[in-house]
Amino acid sequence: MAAALMRIEGDIVTPQGVIRGLLDMAQGRIAAIAGTPIDTASAGEDGRPLLLPGFVDTHVHGGGGRDTMEGGDAITTIARRHARHGTTALLATTMTAPIGEIEAALRALGPVCRERGAQSARVLGAHLEGPYINPGRLGAQPAHAIPATLDEVLRLNTLAPIKVLTLAPEVPGHLALIGPLRDAGIRVQIGHSNGSYEDGVAALGAGAAGFTHLFNAMSALHHREPGMVGAALAHGEHAELIPDLLHVHPGAIRAALRCIPGLFCVTDSTAAAGMPDGDYRLGEYTVRKCLGGVRLADGTLAGSALTMDQALRNLVQRLALPLTDAVRRVSTAAADYLGLADRGRLAPGAWADVVVMDAGLELRRVFVEGEEIDVVADA
Q1: How do strand 162-167 and strand 210-211 relate by DSSP bridges?
Q2: Which residues are annotated as a binding site for Zn(2+)?
Q3: What pLDDT, in 10s, does the model give residues 191-215?
Q4: Which of 53, 105, 264, 361 has its CA 20 to 30 A from that of 124?
């Protein structure tokens, strides 16, 4: 249970800027923020803690040695491990698999979406990454791609709330599904696609909301064939991006930041997140974590070992983003994309999802809906 009242002092990153002062939490919500506005560049001076909104991750396959497709209690372990790295809300993400296996994963996920477990991030719902993708752009997805039908997706949505669905719009019949899926409250993301620039523009016009792990597993930008990447950069309002600096070159990240207003960061994390080097499950595959990356036996990148606290450090320390913009990319932009006005920001009335870091952006404390998480070092 959240304490009746808790007060934290520090430099508070709010939607209006940084405030040096006090943040009060009560009954799982932010009760008040008071203090003096300061320049972002002086945040964290003299050892003052930084108070940031909890991270929102819309693409989480696993963590803590467990994979979403395992079903059972795997998602509980995953939500706990990511909470220890500052993620306070997430979408559990499935793999391309036979429909029966996806159904089993969603059945296990449904109860966790309805009630947050102790010491856990809030699981907002599912991101269905496949099986409705192009079999020619599987990336690290198993070869079980099939065309989508509206009836099937809506049936799966009764097992656990599908908040995001990745779809290749060039697959016959898919373009016509985008509008009905949007009307059902499911955000369609273009991904794992061999589609042309024109296919991407048509999908956006039909109501597609964004792009899944921009640049990865989609037709690339060429000056005479702009591809799906070109459609995203020219017309996209929202897109995921994996900032582990392995999936996307820093120069490409900078280009996307200039082009896509609502670009937000995801981990695309596997069971290897928060774990030592070794072999882990990703759907039906075994993947190996080594040298900071996660790969199939043939060397293909297969998700990541990234956590959102490291994503923030990469944005600020490696790409030199201002702290306030980096925070927007790991918290606020994803919450806005999901239509959540009370997450991803520190403001009175919002959920008390708070990350406390030092000036070096090392994690010190995490609160999920007012509950303090036991933050300990990973194995």
Answers
A1: unpaired
A2: 129, 192, 213
A3: 999 999 999 999 999 999 999 999 9
A4: 361
- Give φ, ψ of 126 to 5 degrees: -110, 150
Catalytic residue check, 268: yes
Query: What is the helix (H) or strand (E) element at residue 106, kind and residue range?
Result: helix 99-114
Domains defined along the chain, listed by start: 6-51+349-372 (2.30.40.10), 53-337 (3.20.20.140)
Which residues are known binding-site members for substrate?
140, 216-217, 224, 247, 301-303
Task: For residue 131, say if its preceding peptide bond is cis, omega within 30 degrees of 0.
Answer: yes
The pLDDT tens digits of the residues spanning 53-77 come to 999 999 999 999 999 999 999 999 9
Catalytic hit among 268, 309, 336, 353: 268
Phi, psi of 70, deg, nearest 5: -70, -25
Task: Assess whether pLDDT exceeds 90 at residue 307.
Answer: yes
Q: Where are the extended beta strands (E) located within 219-362?
A: 238-241, 262-265, 278-282, 285-290, 293-295, 301-304, 354-357
Tokens 């993400």 correspond to 93
- Phi-psi group of 317: left, alpha or beta (phi > 0 → left; psi -120 to 50 → alpha; rest → beta): alpha
- Kind of pairing between the strands at 122-129 and 87-94: parallel
pLDDT score of 378 more than 80: no
**Tokens linked to 290:** 């080594």
* Single-letter amino acid, residue 205: G
3-class SS at 352? coil
pLDDT(3) > 60 = no
For 262-301, the pLDDT digits (tens) are: 999 999 999 999 999 999 999 999 999 998 999 999 999 9
pLDDT of residue 1: 42
- Between CA 59 and CA 95 the distance in angstroms is 11
Closest CA to 146 of 97, 203, 100: 97
